[in-house]
């Protein structure tokens, strides 16, 4: 009896458990009976199947998924752009920036192009006149008397130097041009043209690329050679025998200008062969080389300073290409006896080359600014930096000529290009008779007039750009005038360091004080720089002036307490640390180291 009662109790418990399960999950029986068609994949919530969700889904989608419902869903699907407003606003600004790039870039290119024109015309117009004035000063030297203390005519003391540093540099430039031009007469342009024309198209394409690379390397190193010559010829010297060091520098400069002129001549000959080819295949290949430049520049990381370097390089390349096209047109017009009809034959090819240059520059700069998040307003800063160079070269404290400043900033050295252009013009145009010489003189007067007009317009525009960029205060910063120590040898004398844009010199020196602006802006721009008499010791016959070592410092209106002196090692370490800290924070005006390789990434 006990067993029977136990089994009954167990059966009752099982029945109760099954009843409870059915109450919790009543759809199992319905699914087994087939009364409703519930899909096996029901919505699962925490391990349980929700029958209400399944029934709701079944009411919403009474049929199986079909192509019609998918297409209707795709046609009626919507979205809201305002949910990501910042992202789309940024994309729109990028489009606006790309649309502004051509205008801002061409403003910079036009301004830089006329800066190169001004520096290039200076070699033909004002440089001969300046050399003539320097020679006249040397010829009038006996009027002063070698023993006279002061000349009664020119009021020049016999102890002062014969020529000013700027005149010495002008004479050296004139001598370099005369020697290189005489050496260029031994180079046969026609033989070089036919030698290049006999090569295959692929060889000419490789030669042209090699010439472009060599031109950049020559430009980057050439201005260093010329600067070394100028400083060696004008630095303070204690003994006359130290002037012998000018001779090897001068020979090196002549050799460089001659080689660079031959390089540009080969480049012009290759371009002339491309113009005169029958199928124009070489010209097409050479123009396609410009588009290869986009691939090498667009996908690199560029900062503002790197973009400034590349912009200066593009300005120089565009001006050089225009001069090469002028040389090609002169040679072709000479071959066709200056027939005006042949000029229209050359016009389509010239237009194609110029258009490809402009298009490549616009596309390259547009995508570089897009990928590096650089605004289009940066080109106005670049233009103000170039304008600052022009205005500062007209100041009293100018430390370099403007043509040399353009060469350092853009890598454009006008001497080799001027030598080649003079050689081509004189071989293409025959000057015979008084009428021809009269035309040459009138042409020279026209070039002088155009140069003066261009300089006036550029100077006015530069003043506007400098004022708009709030860079006027930097124009009146005085360079340091600390004399070199007497214990150093003349070859190691420290050059006068010019002020940078931030008012700091490149070497450790006294704090720079700001000069008060001159009474009129015109006098500060056009007046001659004052010579630095503290670099040169006075004559022994004149006991009144003190030597540079014993000369007291010039008193200032409000003297400040002197800073505590530091040992030499500590001062050098401090200067090195300050220079190290200033290196990453470069200003645009401090980038003047031959930016011909503009796509270099620091």
Automatic annotation (TrEMBL):
Chief site of localization: membrane
Q: Name one GO cellular component term.
A: ciliary basal body
Q: How does it sit in the membrane?
A: Multi-pass membrane protein
Q: What are the recorded Gene Ontology BP terms?
A: cartilage development; developmental pigmentation; lens morphogenesis in camera-type eye; ossification; positive regulation of cilium assembly; retina layer formation
Q: Which Pfam families match?
A: DUF747 (PF05346)
Bias class Low complexity marks the residues at 521-531
Q: Where is the composition biased (Pro residues)?
A: 537-565
Q: Show the segment(s) annotated as Disordered.
A: 1-38, 477-586
Q: Give the Basic and acidic residues compositional bias ranges.
A: 10-32
What's the family? Belongs to the TAPT1 family.
Q: What is this protein called?
A: Transmembrane anterior posterior transformation protein 1 homolog isoform X1
| Species whose genome carries this gene | Cottoperca gobio
Top-level taxonomy:
Eukaryota, Metazoa, Chordata, Craniata, Vertebrata
């Amino acid at each position: 009896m006990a067993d029977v009662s136990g089994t009954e109790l167990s059966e009752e418990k099982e029945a109760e458990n099954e009843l409870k399960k059915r109450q919790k999950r009543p759809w199992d029986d319905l699914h087994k009976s087939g009364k409703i068609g519930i899909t096996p994949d029901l919505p699962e919530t925490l391990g349980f199947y929700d029958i209400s969700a399944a029934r709701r889904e079944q009411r919403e989608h009474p049929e199986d998924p079909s192509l019609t419902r998918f297409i209707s869903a795709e046609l009626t699907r919507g979205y809201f752009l305002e949910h990501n407003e910042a992202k789309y606003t940024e994309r729109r600004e990028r489009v606006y920036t790309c649309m502004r790039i051509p205008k801002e870039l061409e403003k910079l290119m036009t301004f830089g192009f006329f800066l190169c024109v001004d520096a290039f015309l200076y070699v033909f117009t004002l440089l001969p006149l300046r050399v003539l004035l320097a020679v006249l000063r040397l010829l009038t030297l006996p009027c002063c008397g070698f023993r006279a203390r002061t000349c009664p005519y020119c009021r020049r003391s016999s102890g002062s130097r014969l020529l000013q540093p700027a005149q010495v540099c002008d004479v050296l430039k004139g001598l370099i041009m005369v020697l290189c031009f005489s050496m260029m007469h031994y180079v046969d342009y026609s033989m070089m043209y036919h030698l290049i024309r006999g090569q295959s198209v692929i060889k000419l394409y490789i030669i042209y690329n090699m010439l472009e690379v060599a031109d950049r390397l020559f430009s980057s190193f050439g201005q260093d050679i010329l600067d070394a010559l100028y400083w060696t010829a004008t630095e303070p010297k204690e003994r006359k025998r130290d002037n012998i060091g000018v001779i090897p520098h001068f020979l090196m400069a002549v050799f460089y200008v001659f080689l660079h002129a031959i390089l540009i001549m080969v480049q012009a000959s290759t371009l002339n062969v491309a113009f005169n080819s029958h199928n124009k295949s070489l010209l097409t290949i050479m123009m396609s080389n410009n588009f290869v430049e986009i691939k090498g520049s667009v996908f690199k990381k560029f900062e503002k300073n790197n973009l400034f370097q590349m912009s200066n390089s593009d300005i120089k390349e565009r001006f050089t290409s225009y001069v090469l096209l002028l040389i090609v047109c002169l040679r072709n017009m000479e071959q066709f006896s200056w027939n005006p009809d042949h000029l229209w034959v050359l016009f389509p090819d010239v237009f194609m080359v110029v258009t490809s240059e402009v298009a490549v520059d616009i596309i390259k700069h547009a995508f570089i600014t897009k990928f590096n998040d650089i605004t289009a307003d940066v080109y106005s800063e670049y233009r103000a930096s170039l304008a600052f160079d022009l205005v500062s070269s007209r100041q009293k404290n100018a430390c370099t000529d403007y043509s040399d400043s353009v060469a350092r900033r853009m890598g454009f050295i006008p001497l080799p290009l001027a030598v080649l252009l003079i050689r081509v013009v004189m071989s293409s145009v025959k000057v015979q008779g008084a009428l021809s010489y009269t035309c040459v003189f009138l042409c020279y007067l026209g070039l002088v007039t155009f140069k003066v007009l261009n300089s006036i317009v550029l100077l006015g525009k530069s003043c506007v750009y400098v004022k708009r960029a709030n860079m006027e205060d930097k124009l009146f910063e005085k360079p340091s005038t600390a004399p070199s120590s007497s214990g150093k040898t003349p070859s190691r004398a420290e050059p006068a360091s010019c002020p940078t844009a931030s008012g700091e010199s490149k070497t450790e020196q006294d704090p720079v004080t700001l000069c008060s602006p001159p009474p009129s802006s015109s006098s500060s721009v056009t007046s001659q720089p004052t010579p630095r008499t503290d670099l040169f010791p006075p004559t022994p016959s004149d006991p009144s002036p003190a030597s540079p070592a014993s000369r007291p410092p010039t008193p200032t209106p409000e003297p400040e307490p002197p800073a505590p002196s530091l040992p030499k090692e500590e001062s050098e370490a401090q200067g090195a640390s300050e220079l190290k800290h200033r290196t990453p924070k470069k200003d645009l005006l401090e980038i003047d180291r031959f930016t011909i390789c503009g796509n270099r990434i620091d």
